[in-house]
Amino acid sequence: MNAEFLAVLDHLTREKGIDREVIIEAVEAALVSAARKALGSDVADVTVKIDRTTGAIKIFSDGQEVREAGFGRIAAQTAKQVILHKIREAERNVVYNEFSPREGTLITGTMHRFERGAIIVDLGKTEAILPKREQSPKESFRPGDRIRAYCLEVNKTAKGPQVILSRSHPSLVKELFKLEVPEIAQRIVEIKSISREAGDRSKISVTSKDEKVDCVGACVGMRGTRVKDIVRELHGEKIDIIRWSSNPEEYLTTALAPAKVAEIHLSPDKKRAEVMVEDDQLSLAIGKRGQNVRLASRLTGLDIDIRSRSQLAALTKVSIADLEGVGPKLAEALKEAGYETIAAIAQASVERLTEVKGVGEKTAKKLLEGAKEMLSKLEAELSAQNEQEQQQEQQQPPGEQGPPASAEEGS
Questions:
Q1: Backbone CA torsion sign across 346, 352, 357, 361
Q2: I need a labelling partner for 332 at 20 to 30 A (CA). Which of 180, 269, 290, 376 fits?
Q3: What is the topology classification, in CATH, of domain 169-244?
């Protein structure tokens, strides 16, 4: 048994990369436990020594060597169990150490089977999980299909390393662009932001560190070859490539493409934007089921409120005389103070309104509340009108849905 034990130790050290001393110490500890059970609970001190050169195993109880029959068999079984456990542990560590550095990168495998809605992907040395929540809703795979996915995380579990993949994460698009566009891999072109609705559409903003390199052109490729390869990999998902700008208005204008923006008003904290478009651009700016404005909002980090020119006109032209308690004299006084619309009053403060001739604090509060309530109702009506127009737009036959997408779409 001694020669075989040493041979196994040498094999594990070479093939599995397991430290020889670690296995010997583990076997010694396991044999101590086995010896205690065999000798009974009355034994106070039990130690086991394995000779590192010959492999000889000696068991001591209270300082005396135990030569009881059956210990050879116990030692052999215990050593076998410990070694098998160490082999499994080492193999798991090898797999974990190989895949943990690949978090945040692309991994390619083969679709193996379905398991409770998740897809099990064969990676060769281990299997990965593509959970239902991380799958693109418009994709389907069959056993044997090649799957390229984004490595979301690698976790250590009792059953070994668990590799979790994603086909819906925005970073999948980013990594595909790195793969297809050398200028991105070389850090000449930088991806600033990505917003994505997996399986349907993505928006990606890019900028160039070299004035001679066109960032959008580099991503699209000659005759669109680069972006077409990515679209093919994403099973037809549309991709809008836009030029990033440090100017918020300019950046938002390109982010809302293919719609044409007429005016943009940013809030003082630069977190909210009111956008005005021409009437024929409204449905295009909002997009199907609000997708275009939603993706633009995520891309720019702005809360976006879009109105058409006629809608804004409707909001600003509501007469202040329609407010409860506002007679001709008060209406005239408000207009002279610069409050000509309901919106202007709603955006004022009680302090500012009390500066108007004939307006006290109580009247100012009543005016402010009434203006905000009326404005809220008007905006609700306009939102309902927007939804109705979108539904009509979606019901129109192809070819009657307005102008085509911008040239920078690349799809």
A1: positive
A2: 376
A3: GMP Synthetase; Chain A, domain 3 (3.30.300)
